[in-house]
Amino acid sequence: MGDLFGAAGALRELYAGTDWAATSLGPVESWSPTLTTTLRTTFHTRFPVALFWGPEFALLYNEAYAPMIADKHPAALGTPARGVFPEIWETIGPMLEAAAKGGDGTWVENLRLLMNRQGFLEETYFTFSYSAVTSPAGQVEGVMDIAAETTAQVIGTRRLHLLRRLGDALAGAERRADLIDRALPVLRSAESDLASVVLMVPASDEPATTFEPLTAPPDMLTVLPDDTGASVHFRLADPAAGDDDSVLIARLSPHLTMDDAYLGFIRLLGRTLTQALGRIRARHTDRLLVSMERAMSEALQQSLLTQPAQPEHTQVAVRYLSSIAQAHIGGDWYDAFQLPDGTLTVAVGDVSGHDRSAAVAMAQIRNVLRGIAFTVRTPPSRILTDLGAAMAGLPVHAFASVVLAQIEVGAGVRTLRWSNAGHPPPALLGPDGSVRLLETPGETLLGVRAGVARTDHTIALEPGAAVVFYTDGLIERRRADLDERLRHLAVALTDRQHLDAEQLCDHLLESFSGDAEDDIAITVVKAVSA
Known about the structure:
Structural class: alpha+beta
Mean pLDDT: 88
Shape: globular
Distance between the termini: 60 Å
Strand content: 25-35%
């Protein structure tokens, strides 16, 4: 049998020191060839894999699986699955039983499970597959679980959507009463993140002391723990306008960890409300000032966006259009520059929010990304991973989507290599006029969690082909289906292969900018024959 546990990595000593004879699996010497072979395969993959073996589904797993069960490890090793996962057994038990009967197995995507892995029932999400493991004689001996935790991605996307909905709801608020009427329904719909919400905003004709003010400094989040959980108070402070007593009070979900990402999300909610109060004050005091601010914002946005590089035999065109509906600077950006070896690097991204904070975060992210790409010269996936780590360390408190691409030329062949962090898919216009959306499995937004492993994708870029990168303002509209809007984009580009990069940009703005509700950034890269 050799050293069966030699490839178990950090779990090697745990496996070797376990009294297997005391488990339902019996001593290692009695294990079947099917079990030993499957376990060796499990150890040799870096993807999280678990085995549920025998009639009691005794649990075996590799090093990558252990973090997903947190405090259940190491006691889970060799333990019947029902004893390891009693809180979710009603859900996963029937799946395991079905797989053990030799059926087609299961495939579940982003399944919500309330799992007790850190001392409380935690909201978690997993994408996984259960499949039967059979002996050469065709007998089912166990079930293999290939899994990936998607908790951060699902919750991060959910929170980003809430922030966007809140921003949309508050965009037209004219009075302080509007702030409550518009914000509370949105906030109270987020029951998974906010167990309860209270929003206190004094009316403009009432004294500022309608309730006891908090003692925390302005723009400070106060956490108030109790026996059943915790609530947070965020002061919507604007001393110059007498808004010191405005406060957002939210009770945190008992099923989520009170980590930096959670508190950062509450801060973003509070700042969104604070910014809405500022906009209301501005509308009441001087509408002309808003117009001036808009002009200054557009000038500032344009100053942050540089002219793109123009490599040989490649056309690069860019456009930025500020939305008429937004009175503040946005977080959309583009960039196109060459590395020392001539590789063209293209980035298009969108920072959540429409204010100076979004602009500052956008400038920081854009500049750090450019510095990492120019200095480290690694594939896009690694650059985005390093960028996420830099955002966490600096820190840059923002969520951002970005698609990062490199166009490499070698042996007369252009290769487009890209990685996508939660951004709309680029569109590829072929030299024959056909259009393909470069859709890839969704990956986590920047700012949700540091250290996220990302993926590269490659295609050959034929002469005459063009790639269109854009922000969601080009296609997304309220009450419009996103898939339908993407199809609209594909139709607008179809049979436009005769247009150069500049003409393609103009054509897209003519087709989509009329009813745009958000800022639009576009970058078009077209391969030209030598």
